[in-house]
Amino acid sequence: MAPKNEKIGIVGSGIIGRSWAMLFASVGYKVSIFDIERKQIDSALVEITKEVKRLESQKILRGKLSGDEQIACVTGCTSLAEVVKDAVLIQECVPENLDLKKKLYTDLDKVVDSKSIISSSTSTFLPSLLSDGMKHKSQFVVSHPVNPPYYVPLVEIVPAPWTDASVVPKTKAIMEEIGQVPVCLNKEVPGFALNRIQYCILNEAFRLVADGVLNVKDVDNVMSEGLGMRYAFLGPLETAHLNAEGMKSYCERYCNSMWNVCQTFGPTPRFEGPVVDVMNEQLCAMTPVDKLQDRRVWRDTCLTHLAQLKKKMNN
């Protein structure tokens, strides 16, 4: 496999931007990373090199190119006009600050051409909110990754009401090319899909701790040793389908008990107050703050091996 002639522009050199850069470089795209400070770019390139080398040494590097070939695909610049020039896709990865993102898109709108896909990594802002008023708003789409993107393949592709019909399938094809698993929302909705589902789980986890039903570790075990084991391979709907003689049978059997339990869930928690302190204390006992990075590396390694197992099982 040889490097490609096509270019991807990455705006933002933080964790998400670096992870996207590694994904695009894994299939040979020429990747240019933009940041306003050169030292931030230099730091990002160093971190990418270290991570690619580590993954290659553990034989879990994605893509068919060697580590050195992938590293050579990634460069950096401090010019927004330069990073977007001739890019087939521009992936925005700046912090989740609405004013910052709106200013960026105002500046980007002045230098981007009519061919580039303008893609945001946002996890919270609707694409219509970010792109409203842009001259190139028909090229805009959200491509929301799951943190960390290099190790978790899902990408939510969310169009604005005015996104050109060709943008979503083009974006989907690029995401599939780099080994991600895109899901395409037919319309924008607050929280997209992943966070809407995730927030339901977090809400009930909070309530179970707040009500003294379970401690933090046991709540997490319910997911990691129970539901998560199934959900790593099957979603909740197919899981229900298999847990009876099909989905219709499942609903006929359990609709009343599900309804009755759900009536006891109580109000949506605010995630503030003394319960937060209780959860934080228990979580810090499990993983001290000064050990978080070690735990993240362990998590990422687990996710990589899980991805390899899923690929093997699906072949």
TrEMBL record:
- Identify the keywords attached in UniProt to this record, alphabetized: Cytoplasm, NAD, Oxidoreductase, Phosphoprotein
Q: Does the keyword Acetylation apply?
A: no
3-hydroxyacyl-CoA dehydrogenase NAD binding domain sequence ranges? 7-187
Domain of life of the organism encoding this protein: Eukaryota
EC number(s) per entry: 1.1.1.45
| A Gene Ontology term for the protein's cellular component | cytoplasm
- Looking at the record, the residues that make up the 3-hydroxyacyl-CoA dehydrogenase C-terminal domain are 191-259
Q: Which GO terms describe its molecular function?
A: L-gulonate 3-dehydrogenase activity; NAD+ binding
> Can you supply a Gene Ontology BP term from the record?
fatty acid metabolic process
Subcellular localization, per the record?
Answer: Cytoplasm
Q: Primary place of residence?
A: cytoplasm
Show which residues form the site (Important for catalytic activity).
H144
Spell out the subunit comment. Homodimer.
> Per its record, how is this protein called by name?
L-gulonate 3-dehydrogenase
